[in-house]
Fold this sequence. Notes:
The protein is elongated, with a radius of gyration of 45 Å. It contains 18 helices and 17 strands. By secondary structure, the protein is of the alpha/beta class. α1 (5-21) packs antiparallel against α2. It has 4 domains: 5-72; 75-208, PAS domain (Beta-Lactamase), CATH 3.30.450; 300-461, Histidine kinase-like ATPase, C-terminal domain (Heat Shock Protein 90); 486-603, Rossmann fold. The chain has a 5-stranded antiparallel beta sheet with strand order 2-1-5-4-3. It has helices at residues 5-21, 28-74, 85-96, 102-108, 110-119, 127-133, 153-166, 210-261, 268-295, 307-318, 343-361, 406-409, 429-439, 494-506, 517-527, 545-555, 573-578, 591-603, and strands spanning 78-83, 121-125, 168-176, 182-191, 202-208, 303-305, 326-331, 339-341, 366-377, 390-399, 443-449, 453-461, 486-490, 510-514, 533-537, 561-565, 583-586.
Amino acid sequence: MTENSSSILWRLFSYFSELLTMSTQIRPTDIGLIVVLGLLIILLVLNQRKKRIITNKSKQLAETEERYALLFEHSPIALLEEDLSSVKNFLDRLENEGVSDLESYFEQHPESLRRCIDMVRVNAANRAALTLYGANKKEDLLHLTAILPESQNLVFLQTVMLLLKKKTAQFLFENNSLDGRVLTVERRVVVASGFEKSWKKVFVTVIDITEQVKLRNENKAFEKQLQQTQKLEAIGSLAGGIAHDFNNILAPIMGRAELMLVESDINSEAAEHCRGILEASRRARDLVKQILTFSRQVDQEIQPVCLTDIIEEVVKLVHPTLPTTIEIKMHLPESCPRIMADSTQLHQILMNLMTNAYHAMEETGGQLNIRLETMTLGLGAFDDLSITPGLYQQLTVEDTGHGMDEATMTKIFDPYFTTKSRGKGTGLGLAVVLGILRGYGGEIRVASTLGKGTTFTLYFPVVEVAETSPQLAIDPQEPMPRGSEHILLVDDEKSIADVTTSMLERLGYKVTVRLSGFDALEAYRSLSSTIDLVIADLTMPQMTGLQLYKKIKLLRSDAKVIICTGFSEQLTSDKSRVIGIEGFLNKPVIMADLAHCVRRVLDS
């Protein structure tokens, strides 16, 4: 039938109306047959309409399913359709058996939890999911256990607990891909509508956030490194301040002892005491220099360096901090070829290696051996390392500590990897050592045996240094040069000014003392014609030694100035010569150094 069902019904109604008008001429039995025939026609019409509706709905459903399948298969997000009906049945059975706290039950029975995970079936996986997990076909992802490691069992348990409450869950998981990669993914799980009781159809979206997590961790690591750098900078600034104050304390002690030694009527016992004071003060001064060398953050100064001197300096600094159960043995040549390096970085390398050795022997004690040799490396010496043949300084640092296994040795140069307990290391030490060494064109090798110790062997390329005329050292027995010139002495520490004045006067000089830069400038304005030399402290309040130097040079361009300092990153002896300062003295000042420096500047 092609006509509208309502028009057909209307025609049937008209037909029956005509029959009824003719009812006087038709027998009753014929009327019954006519009514039945009409009803049959009506049923046929309605059935045809129902068929058409069902056909349209089926077509729409097929189109929807096709559209869903297309979206599912070609979605850029990894999609899974999972069957958790066996898991739901198991949970229901546990509840029927009286288990009220499912989470506690599974924590106490991990084997049951793993069995639950094994019950999960993956009914479908789209192309993005196959690519993500490195699968060739959908059957490779049939079981959830193929991609979910046992370490993630408790996270899966939390997902199930949320599904029981909310029918949806979202958690971060670690997944194993079929090709061996470790993934960090965000799994969003939702029970399909109509399957809330059975969990037979559960939709899962999987978002790979491995790179994001990696970047986040790297950012955290960089933040920690920045904090560590800021701490080191703070330590360097603190060390500089301590050095300045400590040198100001040492200066009068050393100066007074030296003045007592030059007294003609001092007895031998008192002289011996003075020499003891001077020796102890020199050791304290050297200790401050070593601390500054290690802690201050300055630009690299790559220059020819003798490793023997650096090793001896670091051992002197470290030795007092080691327990008596650790013995240090050094095998160093009296002279060695030079290497091009920064002294501060060499201090850092040795401190890192010796600190690691100390921690390895901290509990049991042992022996730390340090050996330096000159080696010639041929073409086949380093097949596995990028190092060129040639002459090298070979530094060996060996301990008899607990040693390392092979797995640990493969990671020791990774940034932030550490085997030490919290508070004893950041994991940056050996990574820094390797970076510095390779920057110099060198390399490092490690050998270790569990229970027997570890040996680090470092290679530094040797450089040829042109011969220079050696600087003559000051002979302490030689008479100190004297003079009679007029010197303006400026130092804000009265005790240092008094001692330095006594030294200069003992050497024959006339001294005018001022305790501030402003007073010194006024004195120089009025006495500039008679003052032959200015000795000024670098660090003073209100006006520094450098500021005073510039103002004095404006008053008299040929003025001669010596700057004294205990510690400064702004001014060194090399920098002072560049800017035109005639002399430079490190505090605490020894009388012999003062005498020779003053005479040299005055005679220049």
